[in-house]
Each structure stands twice: as C-alpha cells, then as structure tokens.
TrEMBL record:
GO terms for biological process: cell division; cell wall organization; peptidoglycan biosynthetic process; regulation of cell shape. Residues 307-420 form the Mur ligase C-terminal domain. This is UDP-N-acetylmuramoylalanine--D-glutamate ligase. It holds the Pfam family MurD-like_N. NCBIfam families: murD (TIGR01087). Pathway: Cell wall biogenesis; peptidoglycan biosynthesis. It comes from Pontibacter akesuensis. One of its GO terms (molecular function) is ATP binding.
C-alpha cells in the first residue's frame, strides 16, 4: 500500500516510522519547513520526504493519506484527495490498526491535558502497563511500533477526532464543550460539538463514556438512546443522572460494581475546573479496578503540566501562577473562580472573538489590577475598565511582571491567564509561559 503523510511534525513523523516498520511504501510532504530533529529521524529510516511544497501528483498517487491535525479539510490538497476518493485519516486512526491495547481517550475544549496527565499518573501509580500519547505531544503511532503497553491514555483534539473513523476507545472522557476553533467548523457550535462527540464512536456495551453532565452543549448534543456503550455522567451541580460526584472533599463513584469514595483533600489541583478533571480521572481509575487508597496516594503526588495553573513561586507572600495555556474565556473563568485571594491578572494577546461578559462578575469580585499584555488591548479595556480598579497595558512581559510586583500586596496572587492566543508577541503559549516564568524568577524570586 502506498501511503502519503502530510505534515512532518510529531504525529506525521510517528506515522511515517510506523508505516515503514509495517513494510508500507511511505512518502512525507510538508508545505512548511521541517524541524531538523524530524529530518534526521526520517533520513535515518530512509523515508523519502519533501518540505516547502506539496508534490500533488505523487501525493495523489497514494492509496491513503494521513494528515496532520493542523491541516484543515478545506486545504486544496485535501479537497483534491477527497474528490479522487482517497481516504484521508489521522495518525491516531492509523496507529489504532496495529495494536490490541485498550484506549482511554480524553477530549474537551478545556481540561483535557490535565485530565489526561492525571489519569495516566493514577494508572501508572497503580502499576498498570500504560502509555501516554496524542495531543499531549507524543506520537501514538511511534509508540505502537514497540507495542509494549496494555493501555494507552490518549489526549485528542477535535482536529484529530475529525479524521478518525474505525478507531474505538474502551473508555472515553469528554470534559466540556465551549466555543473554540469555530473557524474550522463553519462557525457552528453544533458541528464543533459533533466533532467532540466522536470520541465515543464505535463503542459497544463493554465500553464506557464519561462526560460532564453539567455541560449544556454536551447535554444538547449527546443522545444516550443512540449510544451502545455505558454512559457515566459526572457532576458538581447535583445532576440526577450523575454516577460520579463530590461530597465535601470526597469523590463518590456509583457505577454498578465500581463503587468508591475517594478523599481528594491532599490533591494539589485547585478550582472547580480541576474538580471536574479529577472526577473524570478518578472514575477511569475505578473502572480499571484501581483501589481507593492507591488513588488517594497518587492524587497527592500529581504534578500538572507546565502553563496550566502552574505555581512558579512565592515572594513576599505573593504567589505567582502561570496559566498561559488559558487561551479562551472559559479557561480563564475557571482560573479566576478557583483562586480565593485578591488577583493581579495579566491577560491579552490575539483576541479570538472573545465575549468577556462571563468574566465581569468574577473580575469585579476578585481582580484588583488588570495588566493587558498585547499589541491591541482595546477589548479588554472596554470590558474591564469600569470593573477593575487599576488597568494598565504593555507589550513587555518583563514590565508586566515588574508592575505586578509593585502593585501586589501580601496575600495576593499574580496570575498570567491570557484568554487570548499568543501570536502577537510570542511563538506560542509555551513560549509566553516560559517568558513569564523567566521574568518572575529574574525580577521577583531572585530579589
């Protein structure tokens, strides 16, 4: 079989390596520049590749195409492939064909990375033979080459789900659905929600779908009567259908033979959003037979990924938190809601059509200073100028940190939670978060 792979990032190169290992004829094409580390891996395996262009004739001679999640379906080369009847799939779909391991798949607009990492941590701490892959930044296809795991915890974006057809999760988790990336879905929330629900496709009665019963978009889209698997709703708001919920600091799981009561008091995760994430991860662990005491011990030792409510440090009784991954309003809402102290809030960047109205009450209650970090801060100033006592703006993250230090008092929290994309001043949200960390360490923590 001839295979063409479009995009030579982590997923594309992983798919190419798996294809080569399985004896397929493979060609990799990237219209942009391929990173040196990926060129070296392709060269080492004698896999032909090109960069800076798409050789249309060669690509369309393939029996199947694997495309990077970042390439939209409206891209000319994808349209041509579809017109010719060439199947276009994702790396995840391809990888799933070469393993009998069980998949725990996690998606959602917000919270999927934390939930993925926490689920993996709980299962690994319990001694399960488990791998981690997907949107988290590790290629599932490359891991499947060795195929040494019984379970894979896989973070999935909607873009990955769009090109998955036969793939099936044993346990699927949907944390929430809020507006994001709508430009890829014809600005239709219904189409975006349908994409997220694909995480539960192809399930049988032996499989489980864990979902947020408090989320209106999930409730509107998910039809339990058409679902063959076992639905496991989780809730913080007392949903009658909930099989997983909080009582005080304890998570209760009431799913048939998987009853549990898990104390979360020692968990380092804060905020309502992390209560949802923790319910989902704990429920997965229980469905796979992990004992309550093991879960409680693992919760206490969990360390979240960088740029997600990451504690950078504390100086003069002021806490500095890096939440650079919060690139939409919903993520910022959870960050502001979860912090109980007065907040010096650093926000801004490339606005994605944000509606800040849902943040106004929280800002009025909790935010004492707003520092707008971006080239165009007009919308932020209009939304919060009459709500927050002090509003400043800058295009320098170092100045933002200096200003936050001078305007904060003991007991305050300085929070980088931008609500916006980073591309006006930074390469990506990781770059923005790392620059914030460096500025805090240099300007604040070393003083």
């Amino acid at each position: 079989m001839k295979l063409a792979i479009l995009g030579a990032g982590e997923s594309g190169v992983g798919a190419a390596l798996l294809a080569k290992a399985k004896g397929l004829e493979v060609f990799v094409s990237d219209k942009g520049e391929i990173k040196q580390q990926y060129k070296e891996r392709l060269t080492a395996e004698n896999i032909p590749f090109e960069e800076g262009t798409h050789s249309t004739e060669r690509i369309l001679a393939a029996d199947q195409i694997i495309k990077s999640p970042g390439i939209p379906d409206k891209a000319p080369i994808i349209k041509e492939a579809v017109e010719k009847g060439i199947p276009v799939i994702s790396e995840i779909e391809f990888a799933g064909r070469y393993t009998v391991a069980k998949f725990i798949c996690i998606t959602g607009t917000n919270g999927k990375t934390t939930t993925t990492l926490l689920t993996y941590h709980l299962l690994k701490s319990a001694g399960l033979n488990v791998g981690l892959a997907g949107n988290i930044g590790e290629s599932l296809a490359e891991k499947v080459i060795e195929n040494k795991y019984d379970y894979y915890v896989v973070e999935l974006s909607s873009f990955q789900l769009d090109n998955m057809y036969q793939f099936k999760a044993h346990i699927a988790v949907l944390t929430n659905i809020t507006p994001d990336h709508l430009d890829r879905y014809e600005y239709s929330m219904e189409k975006y929600a349908d994409s997220k629900l694909r995480v539960a496709q192809n399930m049988t009665g032996a499989d489980f779908f864990l979902f947020n019963a408090d989320d209106e978009n999930i409730a509107r889209t998910f039809n339990a009567s058409d679902f063959a698997g076992t639905a496991v709703p989780f809730s913080l708001k007392g949903a009658e259908s909930a099989k997983v919920y909080f009582e005080g600091d304890e998570i209760k799981v009431n799913e048939k033979f998987y009853e549990a009561s898990i104390d979360t008091f020692n968990s380092p995760l804060i905020g309502m959003h992390n209560q949802y994430n923790t319910m989902a991860a704990v429920a997965v662990a229980k469905l796979l037979g992990v004992e309550d005491a093991v879960i409680e011990q693992a919760l206490a030792t969990f360390e979240n990924a960088e740029h997600r409510m990451q504690l950078v440090g504390e100086a003069k009784e002021v806490t500095y938190i890096n939440d650079s991954k919060a690139t939409n309003v919903e993520a910022v809402w959870y960050a502001l809601e979860g912090i109980k102290q007065p907040i010096v809030w650093i926000a801004g960047g490339v606005d994605k059509g944000n509606d800040y109205s849902t943040l106004v009450d929280l800002a009025r209650e909790k935010v004492k200073v707003l520092i707008c970090l971006g080239e165009d801060n007009k919308k932020l100033q209009e939304a919060f100028g009459r709500v927050v006592p002090i509003v400043a703006e800058t295009t320098s993250i170092e100045y933002a940190v200096r200003l936050s230090r001078s305007l904060s008092e003991p007991g305050d929290v300085v929070l980088l939670s931008p609500a916006c994309a980073s591309f006006d001043l930074f390469n990506n949200y990781e770059h923005r978060g790392q620059r914030f960390i460096e500025a805090v360490e240099k300007i604040v923590l070393k003083k």
